[in-house]
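To the wet lab folks,

You asked to see what we're planning to order before we commit. Fair enough. Below is the target structure as tokens, and below that is the sequence we designed to fit it. If anything looks off to you, flag it before the synthesis order goes out.
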């Protein structure tokens, strides 16, 4: 997927999320590492986002994952920042700290070099919400822009899958 195609997919996925959340009168937050704010920026580009987007955290530095998002220090020390359980903890921390119904998180390696023995393109996206937390592992190809864009699109798709289910009464 090229950069232009990724931009279109991100925007389309973000528009769907904003529309569905507005219909349900629910909110979302973001916690980002490898995407560095791209997920938040993609959401707020959509008209009406202010009704559903609570805010987010960009926790690029490992220690900020603990300090701001509440990821347990022991988990980070044992597994490192690029891990499925870390992605889950990021999403759960964002939901709590931003007071949102839903939270999305993204962590991974965008390159150009591996990080802590993890290969370029290894990404974990997570959603935390009223029905629990789900993490998806992605093995992505391409350069930094493509990996970051695909991570945003997949995080939005993951949330869409959850919010398309009937809202709780």
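Sequence we intend to order:
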């Amino acid at each position: 997927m090229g950069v232009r195609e990724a931009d279109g997919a991100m925007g389309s996925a973000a528009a769907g999320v904003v529309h569905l959340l507005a219909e349900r009168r629910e909110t979302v937050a973001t916690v980002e590492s490898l995407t560095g704010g791209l997920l938040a920026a993609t959401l707020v580009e959509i008209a009406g986002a202010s009704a559903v987007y609570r805010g987010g955290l960009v926790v690029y530095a490992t220690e900020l994952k603990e300090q701001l998002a509440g990821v347990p220090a022991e988990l980070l020390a044992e597994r490192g920042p690029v891990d499925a359980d870390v992605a889950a903890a990021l999403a759960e921390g964002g939901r709590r700290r931003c007071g949102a119904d839903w939270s999305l998180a993204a962590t991974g390696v965008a390159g150009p070099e591996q990080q802590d023995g993890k290969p370029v393109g290894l990404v974990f996206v997570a959603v935390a919400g009223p029905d629990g937390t789900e993490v998806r592992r992605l093995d992505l190809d391409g350069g930094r822009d493509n990996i970051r864009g695909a991570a945003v699109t997949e995080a939005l798709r993951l949330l869409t899958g959850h919010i398309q289910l009937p809202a709780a009464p």
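Structural context that might help your review: The radius of gyration is 15 Å. The helical segments are 3-24, 38-44, 62-67, 73-79, 84-98, 144-163.

Thanks,
Computational group
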